[in-house]
Specification:
3-stranded antiparallel beta sheet, 14 helices, globular, alpha/beta, 7-stranded mixed beta sheet
Length: 396
């Protein structure tokens, strides 16, 4: 007798390599102590929130004893919070957005699930670029869709536009991109995004329905060496931005995210109504109250990105001196080096022997590589140098 669904059984069996390594780290730390383990497995921002977050919380606390201060609200969030976010995104994207063009959600994951609930029929396909954030598969299959991957260009991890064009079929309903990218650190150029928008515009006309271009952007704020995250909403009428405040404000546990629709889309009001209904029927009901009050006081603030820039340099030096093959990330806080010997699982296991935790690339659809999250203290990065070198020498 099966106590759970076959789909969930497959999900449990496959599991998330990120969580597996995170849990392995807990065991190692219990055995050897926290200071003996170098944990690069989880992209959990360790920087404290900027001061504006604490100020916003104190301001809210002064009113928490008022009626309904923590009560229900419209499913898309407070109207004033949506208006503030729309004003902020209008400046960021270079287009004019109103409160009706944005929806606040329970994290970027909640926004993606609400969107896919709103647009997918059973069997519809969502294309994404491999490597990719592994949870995308679940977010799509939750709503009857099928996630299909399109390889990126070797070496740079940039979009392979001819391959993307060839992958589109009458079943294609959306293309999901992530830039700055987890796990590779790639940042897609404005030219590539404009060309991709052109491909999707033509394909939408050919197939008689919109193919949405969905950009997952929680790392928008974090780029290096002059790279910029291009504004997508002006480039394509069926563009949707999904993001959160998990990384730029270090609020990963507060679960506040959003989606925004391009004002070029004439029928966006219909899509927004559907997304708001999805937000409700999926059980999110509404975004967190406290998160929206934090947004009111901290929108436009961010953590000290110079800390991440320094850690990026340190991590690059450690890997370079140990003889790894990699490209410096242009955004986000991940490295995605090639696994010595080619077997990413075997190499990650060798790192575990050195009490270093990484994630096999196959967990992101990128076998032969491994991911390192450098949102950790400088001391952890420096302490890992000898272990990285010993692990590399085992595969020489």
């Amino acid at each position: 007798m099966n106590a759970i669904s076959s789909q969930m059984s497959k999900s449990i069996e496959g599991g998330s390599w990120i969580r597996r390594m995170f849990e392995a780290g807990i065991q190692l730390k219990r055995q050897f102590g926290d200071d003996a383990v170098c944990d690069f497995s989880l992209g959990n921002p360790d920087l404290p929130p900027p001061p504006a977050v604490g100020e916003a919380l104190r301001a809210f606390a002064a009113h928490v004893d008022e009626p309904f201060s923590l009560g229900y609200m419209p499913n898309a969030g407070f109207e004033w919070a949506r208006a503030l976010l729309a004003e902020h995104l209008s400046k960021e994207q270079g287009v004019q957005l109103g409160s009706g063009d944005v929806l606040l959600s329970c994290g970027a994951a909640g926004a993606l699930n609400a969107l896919f609930k709103a647009i997918l029929d059973p069997g519809d396909e969502v294309l994404t670029i491999a490597p990719y954030f592994v949870e995308y598969g679940s977010y799509v299959s939750n709503h009857g869709g099928v996630l299909r991957t399109v390889p990126s260009l070797p070496g740079t991890f940039a979009p392979d536009l001819p391959a993307m064009r060839a992958a589109i079929t009458p079943k294609t309903r959306a293309v999901l991109i992530n830039s700055p990218h987890n796990p590779t650190g790639a940042v897609y150029s404005r030219e590539d995004l404009a060309d991709l928008a052109g491909i999707l515009e033509k394909a939408s006309e050919e197939h008689g329905r919109p193919i949405y271009l969905v950009a997952d952007e929680p790392y928008r704020f974090l780029t290096f060496d002059g790279a910029e995250t291009a504004a997508l909403l002006p480039l394509y009428r069926h563009a949707v931005i999904v993001s959160s405040f998990s990384k730029n404000l270090s609020l990963a546990g507060e679960r506040l995210g959003y989606l925004a629709l391009s004002p070029l889309f004439a029928d966006r009001a219909t899509l927004m109504v559907a997304a708001i209904m999805a937000n409700r029927v999926l059980g999110y009901v509404n975004p967190p109250v406290i998160g929206q009050w934090i947004l009111k006081g901290a929108l436009g603030s961010q953590v000290d990105v110079s800390v991440y820039a320094r850690r990026r340099q340190l991590m690059g030096e450690v890997l370079r001196e140990a003889g790894y093959e990699f490209q410096m990330p242009r955004g986000a806080f991940y490295f995605f080096p090639k696994a010595p010997g080619g077997d990413d699982v075997a190499f990650v296991n060798a790192l575990v022997e050195e009490r270093i935790l990484a994630v096999p690339g196959r967990g992101f659809g990128g076998p032969g590589h491994f991911r390192l999250a450098f949102c950790v203290g400088d001391d952890v990065i420096l302490r890992s140098a000898a272990g990285f070198k010993r692990a590399r020498e085992k595969f020489a």
